[in-house]
Amino acid sequence: MIKTDILIIGAGPTGLFTVFEAGLLKLKCHLIDALPQAGGQCSELYPKKPIYDIPGFPEILAGDLTKNLLEQSKQFEPGFTLGERAETVEKQEDGSFIVTTNKGTKHQAPIVAIAGGLGSFEPRKPLIPNIASFEDKGVEYFIKDPEVYRDKRVVISGGGDSALDWSIFLADIASEVTLIHRRNEFRGALDSVEKVQELTSKGKIKLVTPAEVINVIGHNKVEGVVVAQSQHIDKEFIIETDHFIPLFGLSPKLGPIGNWGLEIEKNAIKVDNALDYQTNIPGIYAIGDVNTYPGKLKLILCGFHEATLMCQSAYKIINPGKKYVLKYTTVSGIDGFDGSRKESPKAVVKAIK
Ligand SMILES: Cc1cc2nc3c(=O)[nH]c(=O)nc-3n(C[C@H](O)[C@H](O)[C@H](O)COP(=O)(O)OP(=O)(O)OC[C@H]3O[C@@H](n4cnc5c(N)ncnc54)[C@H](O)[C@@H]3O)c2cc1C
Predict the structure, then answer these.
(1) What percent of the chain has pLDDT over 70?
(2) Tell me, what's a Pfam family for it (predicted)?
(3) What is the rounded distance in angstroms from the CA atom of residue 291 to the CA atom of residue 297?
(4) Given 46, 230, 233, 287, which is the most exposed site by the fewest CB atoms within 10 A?
(5) How large is the angle between the packed helices 13-24 and 300-318, nearest 10 degrees?
């Protein structure tokens, strides 16, 4: 049984910043995430994209923001259960909660902070009858490590930012990149569309539109895809490839958390935003993209704010009757759980003779 003060479900930017804010209040955190790495959407969906609206950072790559958040929280020694999905919650007689994952790992805490973002990431899969038998054998719905595709032939399908950006990125890594989209028009950023056009004219990307992949072929691994030209559905041809990567986006699913007895509205958890982002179950909070309240904005900076207020409220539940006086970190410094101490230099008191 893993025991902690605040059990955070979701290691996205909101969950990671919660560790820091809780640490300032001397509360320990443990995070569960279904993904094998921390960072949520930032690391899974757009690690190489610059974000322009993080206060104090005129521009920061989403992957670097994750790195910084991990660095900032490190001194408070958070625990991680990664690659496991939080499935069930049980309230105990002493008021604490036991959260169990799909792999049976049990966690106990007086406070649960759901920072589950869009929920468990479920890729939208194309309706290709035999695709499931090729998953992880050349069919991938996410690109985790671009190096996997070095000197390999890759077919990407999709018409949004992910399909465009990864086609551009892999054009320098893979031996051959084919981008297939069922329309001639793309939904991505204009400069990405222009870049794909440029790389197509240089022969670095093969563009096949309007068309779609209707079958995957191979023995135990992907060896090719069958493509149908949309205008001539009877015109089919095979493209030989090592990888087929359909990038059709994610369908947000709250997943098992949706059955925890929480008030749900439009696939998000309703919270009391007038006070502390607590849900209808006392002791369970919902912060970041996963919650909803009047005026809610699904932005990283809003998740940071919600995490801060939530920790103050959790402190009062964990330390009933104990008064907390807000201190600036510039004044109090930071005492890490790892024994580190950060503080601003003290003023020098010296008489002037
Ligand atoms: C392409 C793109 C660009 C964006 N650009 C910006 C921008 O410029 N500025 C901005 O402010 N925002 C931007 N956003 C939105 C921003 O990424 C989100 O607001 C932010 O990631 C929310 O953080 P979070 O921690 O609340 O949730 P997430 O980042 O979604 O993290 C939630 C985590 O919870 C995990 N999880 C969910 N359910 C479970 C479960 N049952 N068990 C275990 N783990 C679970 C998920 O695996 C995930 O890792 C962008 C989003 C996208 C997709």
Answers:
(1) 99
(2) Pyr_redox_2
(3) 10
(4) 233
(5) 40
